[in-house]
Predict the structure.
Amino acid sequence: MTTPGRSQNSEFDARHEPVLVREVIALLQPRSDGTYVDCTVGLGGHAAAMLAAGAGRVIALDRDAGALARTATRLADAGSRLELVHADYRDLPRVLAERGLTAVDGVLADLGVSSWQLDDPARGFSFRMNGPLDMRMDPSKGPTVAELIATTDESTLADIIYEYGEERHARRVARSIVRARERGPLVETSALASIVRGAAGGRGWQRIDPATRTFQALRIWVNRELEGLDTFVESAVASLRAGGRLAVIAFHSLEDRIVKHTLRRLVDAEETYRMITRKPIRPDDTEVAHNARARSARLRAVEKAVAIA
C-alpha cells in the first residue's frame, strides 16, 4: 500500500517540497476523530502529512484546478478521508457551511505561489524560463498580468510595484514598462524581465535578480493575494472548535505583517484565543539547505482554548 504523499508520477511532482511540515504537524496535532482544512493544498504535501499523522478527515482547498488534479492522483489512496475542493482560501466559511460544519479541529494556510507553479513556464510566474505573462493562480478567472499592464496607467503601475514589491526604483520601472508597451504588447516573461533589469538593475547585482521584486508585485496584484487576508484569518480562527488551531505560513513581509497583526488583535480582544507562536517559526538550516525556497517562510499559529468548567 502506498503511503499518502509518496508521488508515483512525474519528476515534476517529486520536486514539490512542502515547507515546515514537521512543525505544522506538531502544531495541528491531527487526531483520528478530527476534521482539518488545508486551505492551499497545492500538490498535497501538508495534506499528506496530516493524513499520515492520523487525521480523520482533511478538506483540501485550492484555486488552481491543475493542482487539485495532481493531488487527487498523488493521494488517491486516502479515499474518503480526503476531500478536494476547487475554491479560494477566502471561501472557507462557504465551504464549511456547504458541508454542514460549524467547527473544525485545525486549519492550515500555506500562502504564496507553489513550487510547481513556479517551475512551469506556461504559468508565467518565473523569469528564469520564458513563458506567457500570466501569473494567475486560477487560470480560469480574471485578467492576466499581460492584460493588466497593457491598460494600467504609469502612476498606478508604479504604486503597485512599490507597494507590493517594495521596489525603490518603482517609478523608473513603471516608466520603462509603459514606454516598451508603446512599441508593442508585452506578452512574455523574458521581455518584461529584461525591461525591469534595465530600469532597476544598476551594476554589480548578484544577490537578487533586479526583476524579482517587480515580478512579486505583479503576482500579488493579479491574484489579489493581500486582499481579504485579514478577513480570512478572522474567519479561520472563528471556525475552530475548542482546542482547535490555525497555522499560517507566509513567505514575504507584507502578508506576514497582516497575519501577525490580525492574530494579535484577535488574541487581545478575546480571551478564548491563545497565541502559540510568540515569534514566527522559521525553517532550520538543514531544511533551507535542502529546499532554498523555504528560507523566507514564517509560521504563526493560534489556538482556541478549551473551556474550563
In short: The radius of gyration is 20 Å. The chain has 14 helices and seven strands. The domain at 19-44+56-116+244-304 is CATH 3.40.50.150 (Rossmann fold). The longest strand covers residues 240-250.
